[in-house]
Amino acid sequence: MSNFLKTQNVFSRGEISSDFYALNNNNAVAKLENIDVLQSGGLKRRKGLRQIATVPYKSILVPFQISENEKYLLVIYRGSMDIYQNDVKIENVLSPWNENDLDKIQYVQRFNSIFFVHPDYQPRILTKDENGFTMSYFNFYMNSDMSMNIPFKRFDDTEGVFFTMSASQLDNNHALFTSNVDFWDKQFVGQRFLINNKQWILTSIESNRVAELYTNKDFSIVTTPITEWYEEEFNEKRGWPACICFHQNRLVFGCTASAPNNIWMSKVGDYTNFDVGTGLDDEAIFLTLLSAQHHQICNIVSSDKLQILTSVGEWAISNSPLTPSNVDIKQHTSVGSVSTLVLPPQQIEGATVFISESGTDIRELDLDDLGENYNATDLCVASKHLMKQPISVAYNQHTHQLFVVMNAGNMAVLNKYINTDISAWANYKTDGEIQYVGVLDNETYVTVNRDGDLYLEKFDEDCLADADNYGFSYTISALPMIVNGHTPRKIRARKISLRVKDTKSVFINGYRCDIPNNVYENGHVGYSGDLSMNLLGTQRDTMQPLWTVSSNEQLPATILSVTVDGWYQV
User: Are the C-beta atoms of 137 and 122 separated by less than 8 Å?
Assistant: First the structure.
C-alpha cells in the first residue's frame, strides 16, 4: 500500500475515449459535458441558450456581415428566408430551395452580396442596398451581339452525335438542326450551343431528332454533317455549380452533376465572365482534376493557396498570380471529404479544418515547415466516440471553439488555443435536439427542436439555463487513475480538493460542497478559493472515475484544478 497526492490543473486534451485510458493522459478526462476548456487550461460551465424566435421548418443559418455595424443572420428554410438583425426579424425574402435542398447549399460573400450555389438550381445572389434585400439570379455577362461569356463543353455521352443543318421557315436567324440519333429533349429549350464558332439558342423542339435554334449572327447553311459542337456547361440538364469561393479576385465554381471534378474560374475582377478567350493572363480558367479514382469536388477554399477538397483527397493550386498558362495543381493528401451533404471547411488559426469522408475525423489541413506540402492532421484522434454522424459545423474565432452538431442532437465542441497548446473536446447537450449551428461575428446560434417545436437560440453569458425553462447539468469525470506508472488494483481517496473561481454550485462524487452563504446574495460573482470533500471510501473497480465534479443547479462554476490525496494498492 502506497500513498499518493495527485493534482490535475490543466485539462488541455478534454474528453477522450476509453481506447486511450492507458496512455496516462494527465491533461484529459473521461467525461466533459456542458463544459468549456479555458485558454488557461481550466474548466467553465458553458453558457446557457437564449431563445430568440420560433422557426417554422428545418433551417440553415448563414451569417451576412457587411460592416462592423451592419450584421445579419439569415435563417433559410423551405421557400423562404428570414433576416435577423440584433436578434430581431427585420425582413423576409423568398428563396428557391425546398427543405431537402438545404443540406447542399453553399455560399460565399462579396461585399454587400452573398452568392448561393446548389447542384440543382441556377446560382442566386442576395444583395443588400438602401432599399433592402433582393434575391436575383446569377447571370453570365452578355456581349453586345447577345452572346454570353459562359463555358462550353462536349460531354462524353454525346460522342458520335452529329447534326445536319437546314433552313427554318421562321426567319434568317433560325435554323433547323437534325441529329443522327434521338438527342433533343425539352430540357434543352433555352440552352445555348456553340456550333461553328457561333452561339445558338434552342427555341423549340419538333421531335427527338429535330430542333429549331436561333443565333444573332449571320450564318450560312452547312451542307456537311456537323461533328464539332459544344453545349453550355451549366443548365437544368447538365447541372449547376455545387461549390463556390473567391480567389485572387476570381469567382470560382466547382463540380456539377455532369462534371464532378471540374473547376471554373472567372476573368479577374469580372465575376460573370467565364469565357476562356485566348488565354490571356486575366482571362477565365478551366481545369479538370485527374485522378485514378472517381472523385467529386466537395468544397473549394481560398487560403494561402486555392484548396480543392474532393471525396477522395485534398488538392491545391499554389500559383500567385494564377493565370491560364500558370496552373500548378497537386494532390497533397488522400483523406476525402463528406460528399452527401455540405459541411463547410472552417478557417482556424490559418489552417483549413474539414470533416473527413468517413464522418469520424476532423482534419486540419496545414502546410509543413517548408511551406510546400499540406498535412491533414486528425484533431479528434483520441475523441472518436464523440463523432457520430455530423450534420452541421461552424467556428467561432472569438471564443476559439469549433462546433460540430451530431445527428443525435448533441454537439461536440473543440476548444482550441494554439498559443497555450489547448485542443480539448467536450460534449454539449440540451433538453431537446440541436439541429444546426451558425456563427455571426462573435455570437454562436443554433436551431433546436424542443418538444416538437423548432427555435432559433444563441449562447449567452447572461443565461444560466437553456431557453429560460430548460435546465442542464455539467459533468467532469476523471480518467482511471494511474499512479507512479502503476494501474492500481485498489484505491482510496482520503480527500478530494477543488480550486474554483466565481462558483456557486459544485458537487464532488454526488456530494454538495459547502460554499459561504454570502455568495448567493444578489450581485455576487461567486466563490473563489478551495473546496474539499473527505473520507470518500475505497474503490475496487479502478476503471471507474475516482472523482466526478458536477452540478444540476443553474448556477455558475469554474474549476481550476482537482487534487486527490489517498492511497493505492497494486
Answer: yes
Q: Is residue 294 within 8 Å of residue 275, measured between CB atoms?
A: no
- State the average pLDDT over residues 339-359: 96
Cis amide leading into 321 (omega within 30)? yes
Which class for 442: exposed (0-12), middle (13-18), buried (19 or more C-beta within 10 A)?
exposed
pLDDT band at 129 (very low <50, low <70, confident <90, very high): very high
Residues 197-214 have pLDDT tens digits of 999 999 999 999 999 999
Grid cell of 347 as nine digits? 478557417
Each residue's pLDDT tens digit, 365-390:
999 888 889 999 999 999 999 999 99
Q: What pLDDT does residue 536 have? A: 73
- DSSP string across 481-500: P-BTTB--SEEEEEEEEEEE
What's the distance, CA 57 to chain centroid?
Answer: 20
How many other C-beta atoms are found inside a 10 Å radius of the C-beta of residue 287? 15
Q: What span, in angstroms and rounded, lies between the C-alpha atoms of 49 and 432?
A: 12
What are the phi and psi torsion angles at 318 (to 5°)?
Answer: -100, -10
Q: Are the CB atoms for 331 and 365 separated by under 8 Å? A: no
Backbone φ, ψ for residue 294 (5° rounding):
-70, 130
Contact 209, 184 (CB under 8 A): yes
- Look up cell 445579419; give the residue: 72
Cα distances from 200 to residues 12, 82, 177, 514, in angstroms, run 63, 40, 11, 83
- Whole-model pTM: value is 0.96
* Beta-sheet strand order (sheet of 121-129): 106-110, 113-118, 121-129, 132-137
Q: Is 57 exposed, middle or buried (0-12, 13-18, 19+ CB in 10 A)?
A: middle
Strand order in the sheet with 88-94: 60-67, 70-77, 80-85, 88-94
Buried b (16+ CB within 10 A) or exposed e, 326-355: ebebebbbebbbbbeebbbbbebeebbbbb
| Res 1 pLDDT > 80 | no
Q: How confident is the model at residue 537 (pLDDT cuts 50, 70, 90)?
A: confident
d(CA 76, CA 93): 9
158 burial via Cβ count (<10 Å: 0-12, 13-18, 19+): middle
Q: Phi and psi of 356, rounded to 5°?
A: -70, 165
* Calpha distance 447→170 (Å, rounded): 56
Half-sphere exposure of 418 (CA within 13 A, CB side): 6
Pairing type for strands 31-33 and 121-129 reads unpaired
Closest CA to 379 of 393, 222, 514, 88: 393
Go through 458-479 and write b for each residue having 16 or more CB atoms within 10 A of its CB, e for each that does not: bbbeebbebbeebebebbbbbb
User: Can you read off the three cell numbers belonging to residue 302?
Assistant: 481560398
Rounded Cα distance between 6 and 4, Å, is 6
Query: Do 502 and 558 form a contact (C-beta atoms < 8 A)?
Result: yes
User: What is the rounded CA–CA span in Å between residue 50 and residue 46?
Assistant: 13
Query: Number of C-alpha atoms within 13 angstroms, CB side, residue 489?
Result: 3
**Whole-number Å distance between alpha carbons of 221 and 164:** 9
Closest CA to 389 of 432, 352, 423, 341: 341
